[in-house]
Amino acid sequence: MNFNFGEVLSRAWQIIWKHKVLWIFGILASCSQGGRGYNSGGNGGGGTGGPGPGNLPPQLERFFEMIAQNAVPIIITAVSLVCIFWLIAIFLGTIGRIGLIRGTWQAEGGAERLIFGQLFSESTPYFWRVFGLSLLVGLPIILLVGALAAALVLFGVSMSQGNRTSAFGFLGVLPIFFACLCVLIPVAIVINMIVRQSERAIVLENLPVLPSLSRGWEIFRSHLGEIILMAIILGVLGVVTGFIIAIPVFIVVVPAAIAFAAGNAQNWTPLIVAGGLLCLYIPISLLLNGIVISFTESAWTLTYLRLTRKPDANEPVTPDPETPPPPSLDDGDKTVISSSYA
Fold it and tell me: What is the pLDDT averaged over residues 53-67?
């Protein structure tokens, strides 16, 4: 294995530190990777001193009555908003990953400056192919897990109503569900490593979806040890940094929850203060998470460039044969890409 992991990791850090615009694309990329949730509230124990349903303030009772009377339009509106935000998150997350790939490639090629607007516009032509790749790979897994989960829910609801046949069905589906999870987890990890290579094949080699998947599998199979070890290194770094980012959340939430419980769930001040502090910390955590993602994606892009470079070549993989030549050095509105491979 002739692969310098330390050089790749240090170079990835140098790139994202010099070109901090990549942090923005890291924040965008986090939109499609699931954000970290911060729950500052909790259900207070059902103490005898708590207010009962009949003791609600009149304004709150009218509010709940209004919700009950307009349940259907409220549900439709909520679902529509969730779908809209979900589509926006997918678009921004995909563009974020593409922007990190192209930005790292350009920086590695000698770019002295990366412009957010130009990098964003250069990323949009690859959106549908990268999104189609994610859909092609992820949809079967989602459908399988969703079908098993739905079967568990249906059997569980029927069992709660005293149906013995459903109880046997629930007990039969439950081990199948967990067995599928045990199989799908390592399979999903392997697929994720292949997809990472395929995304870079789309952006850096301008390949269609299916050829990029074949290209990703070829690179993964040919450099199995390097890719797996890089995935382990980046995975450990991600877990460690994620824990560090979450430490302030625990520092705020745990004392607030203890104080709330000690007050018999009557004093909401600790939770209100904790919620305010978390609202202040969320932008910081998003920034830190964006830096981590930008480093990870840059490291994967550099790994791809190192693994696909021909032994007698001094140039990285050409991302697009139709890419226009680099602008002149005196053009301050465009990204400058050196012809030498740094």
Answer: 60
Q: Comparing 330 with 274, which gets the higher pLDDT?
A: 274
* Single-letter amino acid code for the residue at 10: S
* 174 CB-side CA count, 13 A: 8
Closest CA to 93 of 303, 242, 289, 335: 289
Residue 286 near residue 27, CB atoms below 8 Å: yes
Pure H helices in the chain: 5-18, 21-29, 58-69, 71-108, 116-123, 127-160, 164-205, 209-222, 224-262, 269-308
Q: Burial of 1 by CB count in 10 Å (0-12 exposed, 13-18 middle, 19+ buried)?
A: exposed
Judge contact between 266 and 49, C-beta under 8 A: yes
Separation CA 169–CA 182 (nearest Å): 20
Closest of 12, 30, 16, 11 to residue 290, by C-alpha:
30
Q: Output the six-digit token pair for 178.
A: 């967990």
pLDDT digits (tens, 9 = 90+) for 264-316: 666 778 888 888 999 999 999 999 999 999 999 999 999 999 998 865 544 44
CB atoms within 10 A of CB 40: 20
Query: And the tokens for 56?
Result: 């609600």
Please give, one letter per residue, the 3-state secondary structure of 276-298. HHHHHHHHHHHHHHHHHHHHHHH
DSSP code string of 185-230: HHHHHHHHHHHHHHHHHHHHH---HHHHHHHHHHHHHHTHHHHHHH
Q: How confident is the model at residue 27 (pLDDT cuts 50, 70, 90)?
A: very high
Task: Indicate yes or no: pTM above 0.85.
Answer: no
Query: What gap in Å lies between CA 161 and CA 5, rounded to an integer?
Result: 57
Asked if 180 contacts 148 with a C-beta cutoff of 8 angstroms, the reply is yes
